[in-house]
Amino acid sequence: MSDESTEVGLPVEQHALPQRFENPGLPEHHPRLTDVDDGAAKRSERIVVVLFMLSALGTIGAIVAYFTVPPGATIASIRLSTMLIGFGLAATFIFAGAASVHWSKSLMNDHEKIEYRHPMVSDTETREQASEMLADGMSDTGLSRRGAIKGAMITAVALAPLGFAVPLIGSVGGDWDISKFRHTMWKKGLRLTHDPTGRPIKASDVTIGSAVHVIPEGLNKLEHPLDEKSKAMVLVIRLDPRDLHEAPDREGWSYEGIVAYSKVCTHVGCPVALYEQRTHHLLCPCHQSTFDISNGAKVIFGPADRPLPQLPITVDTEGYLVAQSDFHEPVGPSFWERLK
Question: Which positions fall inside the Rieske domain (predicted)?
Answer without folding.
Answer: 231-322
